[in-house]
Amino acid sequence: MTRRLTFAALVLALLASLAAAARFGHAIWLDARDNAAIRALAGGRDAQPREGADPRVAHARILYLAWRDRLTEAQEMLPLMQGARPDLQSGAHYAIGNARMRLGFQNIETSRFEDAEPEIALAKLAYRAALQADPGDRDAKVNLDLAMRLVRDLPRPEIEGEEDPETRPRRLWTDLPGMPRGAP
Amino acid sequence: MRRAAPTIALIGLLALPGPVAAQAEPGIRAENPHGYGWWLGDVLVQRIRVGLPEGVAIDPASLPKPRAVDYWLDLREVTSREIPDGIELTLRWQNFYSALEPQAREVPSAPIRLTDGTEAHLPGFRFVTSPIRPLAAPSTPDQLLPDPVYHLIDPNPNRIGLAASGLAALVSFLALAWHQAWGPFRRRADRPFTRAARLIARLPGADATGRRRQLHRAFDAAFGRVLIGADLPQFLRARPEFQPVAERLGAFFAQSDAAFFGRAQDLSDGDVAPLARDLARIERGRR
Fold first, then answer.
1. Where does the UniProt annotation place the signal sequence (chain A) (predicted)?
2. ipTM of the prediction
């Protein structure tokens, strides 16, 4: 009886460890594919993340797209970052914020302030999202501060009769005070 | 900055009932975040212990909801935990006030309702938030911090996993080979029937006596001394796993007695090889 049990246990252990080895081998192969995609994106070649890829591939593609001002596509990649590490999520939002800021600065330099303001407002939202994902992201804090100096959040006058703080509309209006001169 | 001033006053007015109500409600004790040293984006954690009489709870619908409380302040999360004489609320606020100089901000108090109908206030608090960049820092494109770096996936955890599971597979295969007397372990002494079955399979077809002899050697080895037909019940008591083939063993020993000591010299060896195989299988726990 003991021998039969030992035989069954040994066969089970062998099968289980073989299955685990197969799983880890597959995971290593997928890691290599994902890393190849990340290297391609970092090297300036576009690569689509595979189905169920590691969030770091989506992160890399968002960085790639944001640097090339393909912000609609970058925005569409954001849902793939769900469940990723906070610093990766934060980095993805931060890269989009930086792209918006660059567009905003371009518009400011050509004196198209009406186009610059919405870009910087969107950049602020992106930096806020970055800080919501990772409140300790110091880069996002600095750049959000810079965006806030360009287009400040300012409170609206209190609306009468809206007593309940939960239903009161978000009081936000922005303006672009002054004219940043840009670097000499 | 001048524009913000009336609002701060208004927020202050809103917050005024807070501390007063908190004093009127001796059951509410707040553990507020530190009053100084906060930047924009920082999360401020406020713990409020609400002492409740037996059978009274906080109306969950009256708890403040996570939302943008003000243009510079988000309420991220409200969690509650039972404590011996009431409930502990944890409010996580996030400050988005971009200060040009250190400035005190007022987090408003919030009304709550208890299930017995009484109203109470969760107290607000003040904190000083400081600018992260110098006041005179220019707002130019070169001040923008660069994009984040690309992150590669670390393949080492999976590599370690593969090495460990490969090692486990090797160890369990070796253990199985030892247990089944395969390969280098085939000469193990305590698998006499397995050895005998293999030898019998290799013996030439005409050597019926040789086959029989090999199997008897195996019985002797398994019993620890020479096993004769009369000792068979004793052997079966010592090795009960062979009980299912007891009848065939009895027949085998009877035939052997006839072959070696009787006159039936031309007795065919019949099922010696299948019997040896079956005994070997039982011995290795496979039947």
1. 1-21
2. 0.78
